[in-house]
Amino acid sequence: VQLQASGGGLVQAGGSLRLSCVASGNIFSINTMAWYRQAPGLQRELVSSITNELNTNYADSVKGRFTISRDSAKNTVYLQMNSLKPEDTAVYFCNADIRSDWRPRFGFKNYWGQGTQVTVSS
After folding, report:
1. How many CA atoms lie within 13 A of 101 on its CB side?
2. Neighbours of 55 (CB within 10 A)
3. What is the mean pLDDT of residues 19-24?
4. I need a surface site. Which of 49, 63, 84, 92 has the fewest CB within 10 A?
5. What is the largest CA-CA distance in the chain?
6. pLDDT at residue 104 above 90?
7. Is pLDDT above 90 for 74?
């Protein structure tokens, strides 16, 4: 199983970016999908998550500006980022709980994608 993130880049403050993350490989089902970020010198933090029932959660710092969504048919999670601020600059990582097989002994495992750099200039 692999997670492939894309969509990062350089944008001016107030601009927008849309991140995508596709899960591929041996996938039976996906539970929660999420985006984390890590700025230089800081710990990785949860930005937003979405369950398979489309329940969403956001960090206070991004509420009202970021929107998470998913396309279960495509095993893809998106993060629409609007009104970007310089403090949003970080490497963004996707994360997902994935089950590879229907048999009960194959439970959900947690996977990380590679990061994608988001840089917001002032």
Report:
1. 5
2. 9
3. 98
4. 63
5. 51
6. no
7. yes
Phi and psi angles of residue 74, each rounded to the nearest 5 degrees, phi first: -105, 5
Strand-pair category, 29-38 with 9-12: unpaired
Q: What does the pLDDT look like over 62-73, one tens digit per residue?
A: 999 999 999 999
Pick from 27, 31, 75, 65: which is nearest to 50 by CA? Answer: 31
CB neighbours of residue 97 within 10 Å: 18
Q: What is the pLDDT of residue 56?
A: 98
Nearest Cα residue to 89 out of 53, 41, 57? 41
**Which residues, 6+ apart, have CB-to-CB distance to 1 below 8 Å?**
23, 24, 25, 26, 27, 98, 100, 109, 111
64-83 average pLDDT score: 98
CA distance linking residue 93 with residue 73, whole number of Å: 21
